[in-house]
Structures are given as structure tokens and as C-alpha cells.
Amino acid sequence: MSTSLLSLNDICMEYPGFKAVSNLTIDIKAGEFISLMGPSGCGKSTTLRMIAGLDSPTSGSMLLEGTSQLDVPIEDRGMPMVWQNFALFPFLNVQKNVEFPLRMKGVASDIRAKKASEWIERLGLSEFAERSIAQLSGGQRQRVALARALVTEPRVLLLDEPLSALDAHLRIKMQTELTRLHKELGITFIYVTHSQSEAFAMADRVVIMNKGEIQQVGTPKEVYRAPENAFVAEFIGMNNLLPGTLVESNGDTVDVVTDLGLFKAKPAMGLKNGDSAHMVIAADCIRLDNQGEQKVRGRISGEEFVGSVITLLVELENGQEFKVQKQQHEVEALNLKYGADLT
Ligand code: ATP
């Protein structure tokens, strides 16, 4: 998994008066599962469309194993796309839908029938081969779309929010299937989603984008535990940001003065004494107590209950509201209720 397969260098996509993607540079390895994530309009789909060949970048280069792809037409790029709405042909049955890309390539009918049947079987669709698309469930349609994309044996599969039309239960099931398929096939998956849980569950590395620019690239663990900037910290969710000023570096830690006191933190690259910065405090790394000496005082101002985990909102002395994530049994053991003072 160490060989670089696809390199995007300084890719830009400009519409009149608007830059949808700016200077996007990333190296994608052979066999990697990459997920592009970010809020609506950040340029995820535009990036995927440029990789597929559906849109041409205004500038930049794109190399597949060192060969430029920008002048290669879509059908020769070998990077098919699976869409959110599946984009299947309603007038063709399952078998013919899956055969379609091979027909476009001029593959002889007996060979394409055999190959399509193999993929139909592999994706557990054999009993539906003669059915029309209208007679299939959402999950079955999704599998047909996958079979149709994979029948050409691509080296890169592009997926644009492929699970968002499915209900929550099916989405989880398909996540497991996609992960299994990716492992079995060993091909590169580039997967666009705005669902953090999907990206974190499946991807080897995630690319966090905002306003057309990459904010961070890393494994799910890296972006979760070491967000590189305030945008990533907030986008990734259960983090609190506390503004402060760096006053001293002590090797592995720095002292940060905030309006809640002095704290030690892990330093970020490029920061020096006197710089303003945000401390990122993960919601599940905060200790709560309603007895004894606390470093920071607060009061519970709200709670969100999600299964066994509870997110408490704690209003601090400086007026900021922090999210604190705890297991339900911990909250009960400490008798932490709405309005409780954490003194
Ligand atoms: P979503 O999650 O909502 O699908 P996205 O991250 O995939 O969003 P893109 O579809 O890549 O976002 O769009 C990026 C930006 O480019 C958006 O602001 C969009 O309005 C703009 N855009 C896309 N296509 C065009 C176009 N043909 N002309 C002008 N602007 C466009």
C-alpha cells in the first residue's frame, strides 16, 4: 500500500467569480481508501468529478502512475463513479445495467454476459439478474451500481455519497460491505461524504476540506486526536476551543494563558511564545467533579443523550459553553444533573 498511484498537484477549479477548488495537492496510494469530507459546498464533488474526467480543472496536474490524465477522456481513465442516486438505467434489467460499460467498450456479448454475471453473483444479486431496476430495494440498487462500476475492473473507484439515499440500518450494513469489498479487491477507493462516522469507519485516510481548500489529511485517529487547525477541530465535532496566548515552551508542552487560568498544552507546529492560539480540548477528555478543588468552575446548562454516551453542556466562568462527553453510568455515579455546580 505504499506505492503512489494518483497524484493531484495544485488543482484549481474556477467558475466565473468563484473558486470551487484551490491548489489541491494530494498523493493517493495504490489500494488506499481515501475519504473526502467537509461541509456542503466545500468542493468534494467537484474534486471527484475532476478525477473522473467529468470536469476539467482550470489549472494543475493529475498523474496516474506518472502519466498525465487531464487529456484522457472519461471512458479511458478507468475511474468509474458510483452516485448517490445510483444513476442506473431504468429501461434495462440488472444484467443489462451491469453489462452496459462493457458494451460501450465493444466487449463481445458472451464475454460481457459472463463478466457481468460474475459481478452480479459477487454482490449477491444473482436472483435479481432479470429484474428491472424499479423492482429493486435501495440496497439492491446500490449493489447493482457497484457491480456496474466494478465490472470494468478499475484501479480506482470513485464514490459520491453512495449511501446517503439509504436508511440508517442499511447504511451501516453497506458500510461493512464496502469495507469488505475494498479489502478483497485491493483497489483504490475515493469516497466523498459529509458523514464523519462513515468516513471514520471506512477510510485509511481522510481529507478534510473547507471552501475549496484542504484543511488536513490524515488517518481518522490523527485528525480526531490532533486537528491541525480550529476548523478541523470544530468540524470533527466533540472538541472545545479555548482562546489563549502562548507564554512559555517547555519542550513537549507549552504554557497557555487563558481567561480561565494557565494551562499546559501540546504545542502545534510553527507557534512561538507570544502567539495567540486556540487550545483544543476533546469533550471526552474532561474530568468532571462536583466536590473538591477544581481548576475551572462551571454549571451544567444542558445535556444531549445518545445511547450510553451523554454530552453535557457546561457553562464556564468566562461564559463559554463547553461540551463534555461522559458515559451515562459516570454521570449517574457523580449525580451530575442539570443546574449542578461544578465547584
Ligand atoms: P455537497 O456536500 O453539498 O454536495 P460539495 O462539497 O460536494 O457539496 P461541490 O458540489 O463540489 O460541493 O461544489 C463546490 C462549490 O462550487 C459550491 O459552492 C457550488 O455552488 C460551486 N459550483 C459547483 N458547480 C458549479 C458550476 N457549474 N458553476 C458555478 N459554481 C459551481
Automatic annotation (TrEMBL):
SUPFAM superfamilies: MOP-like, P-loop containing nucleoside triphosphate hydrolases
Keyword Transport: yes
GO molecular function: ATP binding
Keyword set, alphabetical order: ATP-binding, Nucleotide-binding, Transport
InterPro entries reported in the protein's UniProt record: AAA+_ATPase, ABC_SmlMolc_Importer, ABC_transporter-like_ATP-bd, ABC_transporter-like_CS, Mo/tungstate-bd_C_term_dom, P-loop_NTPase, Transp-assoc_OB_typ2
Domain ABC transporter: 6-236
Entries under SMART domains matching the protein: AAA
Protein name listed in UniProt: ABC transporter ATP-binding protein
Species of provenance: Neptunomonas phycophila
